[in-house]
Amino acid sequence: MTHVLAADPTLADFGKDPLWITIIKAVMLFVFLMLGILFGVWFERKLIARMQHRYGPNRAGKFGLLQSVADGLKMGLKEDLFPRTVDKVLYLLAPVIMVIPAFLAFSIVPFAPMVNLFGVQTPLQLVDLPVAVLFMLAMGAVSVYGVVLAGWSSRSPYALLGGLRSAAQVVSYEIAMGLSFVAVFIFAGTLSTSEIVKAQAETWYAVLLIPSFLIYVVCMFGEAARIPFDLPEGEGELVGGFQTEYSSSLKFALIMMGEYLHTFTASAIAVTLFLGGWRAPLPMEWEWAHTGWMPALWFFIKFVLTFCFIVWVRASLPRVRYDQLMSLGWKVLIPVNLAWILLVAAVRNIVVNEDNRMIGVALGAVIVVGALAIWMRFDTVNQRRKEARKAEVDAEFEQLSNEPAAGGFPVPPLDLPHYHGVQHKEIPSGTN
């Protein structure tokens, strides 16, 4: 069922609002994100608690609703400490760089089509650009500078290593994430977020382009540094990652705020590009389900469900090793994405231009056969490496087991008396 509204916004509808309407929408967006952080922390703790058969926060306020407010007040009022060796300017600037790009990235998210806001017809979206999705990717790339500067300005080897980890991780997964958007651009024919939502009137891209959607879901966790890809904060190896030298003060609160905002941004982009944005989740004949402020409710429901999925993954999966993280990004996601983009381009060529149908079919067949050949070759080589490594480890283990004096396992000789038959009186005094 197609629901193309007469009030569907286009790029031409932006930039015409009065200044006071723009200010009101910016304030509404800011309030939404700030309240989202407060309730998001509480909701995540509650949901994980229920998964683990616990109650979660239940002391501060009804159902523990004021626990996030209490934590924020505590961090804001605690003494602000500065280690002696830090670069104070960059040390203070790093958390700010992490937060501001996350707010800016949310400005291109369409919450609803044209709505009546204080008597003015305006799209419920702060701003839209011909390259809106690229703007979102740029803001995600800028925020990693805050992480790197937080580690470098701390003058701590553990914090610096955590910052470098984050830089390498973002580079790896932003490439795969950007490639997962290419198929969307090919089908939508635009990089504008409002136009992409309009192009999903018939079918959501999560269904039509399911490989791109699945790759984006994986990259979403890597981009937001959420479990199982929260390697920049690997407590087991790096104490506390890039934020090791940040005490529980307002600076630490800003860092946590930036991480939550990136999670919200990743969820909103998933809803916008793949889950139909503000469109109703089911074909509905009722006009009220597609007009007014109801689309904003559909967007909010999809947004909350996506965030629930992120929390569910956190409660279910362990953290991966860093070599597994990098191997997945460079050796799996990027090659698969490139092959999928070529296939999508060939199919799109078939649909749009019937004259080149045979060329498109041949190109698609070559891509599929080539991808299968590369995958089989990679799988065979990988299996041979595993078998060779296993044989090497087994040989080394056998050698060390037979030579205890060479640093192996201290296996006693087989001809010694049975230890359980030795009487206590036969053991010399003073022997432990």
From TrEMBL:
Transmembrane segments: 20-43, 89-109, 129-150, 171-191, 203-222, 260-280, 292-313, 325-346, 358-376
Highest taxon of source: Bacteria
Subcellular location: Cell membrane; Membrane
Enzyme Commission numbers on file: 7.1.1.-
Keywords from the UniProt entry: Cell membrane, Membrane, NAD, Oxidoreductase, Quinone, Translocase, Transmembrane, Transmembrane helix, Ubiquinone
MF terms in GO: NADH dehydrogenase (quinone) (non-electrogenic) activity
Annotated catalysed reactions: a quinone + NADH + 5 H(+)(in) = a quinol + NAD(+) + 4 H(+)(out)
Class of the enzyme per the UniProt entry, highest EC level: translocase
A Pfam family hit: NADHdh
Membrane topology: Multi-pass membrane protein
InterPro entries in the record: NADH_UbQ_OxRdtase_su1/FPO, NADH_UbQ_OxRdtase_su1_CS
Function (record text): NDH-1 shuttles electrons from NADH, via FMN and iron-sulfur (Fe-S) centers, to quinones in the respiratory chain. The immediate electron acceptor for the enzyme in this species is believed to be ubiquinone. Couples the redox reaction to proton translocation (for every two electrons transferred, four hydrogen ions are translocated across the cytoplasmic membrane), and thus conserves the redox energy in a proton gradient. This subunit may bind ubiquinone.
Oligomer status and interactors: NDH-1 is composed of 14 different subunits. Subunits NuoA, H, J, K, L, M, N constitute the membrane sector of the complex.
Family annotation (NCBIfam families): PRK06076.1-2 (NF004741), PRK06076.1-4 (NF004743)
PANTHER family xrefs: NADH DEHYDROGENASE SUBUNIT 1 (PTHR11432), NADH-UBIQUINONE OXIDOREDUCTASE CHAIN 1 (PTHR11432:SF3)
UniProt family annotation: Belongs to the complex I subunit 1 family.
Protein name as annotated: NADH-quinone oxidoreductase subunit H
Organism lineage: Bacteria, Bacillati, Actinomycetota, Actinomycetes, Streptosporangiales
Gene coding for it: nuoH
